[in-house]
Amino acid sequence: VMGFIKAEKPQFDVSYAVHGESTLAINGMYVEADFRRAGVGSLLLASLAREAAAADKEIVSVDCETTNPEAYGFWSRWFEPVAWALERRV
C-alpha cells in the first residue's frame, strides 16, 4: 500500500463550513514517505473526484491545517480556500 484517501458526508466540525447533500468531505489522506512527490496523492485525489462525480456530488471539500506546510502545499494546488478557522489557546 502506497497510501490511502477517505471521504464521507461532511461532519459537524471544521469541515462543516462547506456542507450539503452534494458535498463529499475528505477526512483523511496519507502517502507513505517513500512515495511522496511521485504523483500518488494526485492519483488518489483524481480517483476520489471520479467517484464523487459518479455519485452526483458537486463539491469535494478538505480541511487543511496551515501549520502543516507539506499538506497545505498539496491541497492548495487543487482547492480554493473558502473559510478560515481561528482559535485562541488559554
TrEMBL record:
SUPFAM superfamilies: Acyl-CoA N-acyltransferases (Nat)
Gene Ontology MF: a single term: acyltransferase activity, transferring groups other than amino-acyl groups
InterPro entries documented for this protein: Acyl_CoA_acyltransferase, GNAT_dom
Organism per entry: marine sediment metagenome
Name of the protein in its database record: N-acetyltransferase domain-containing protein
Domain N-acetyltransferase: 1-90
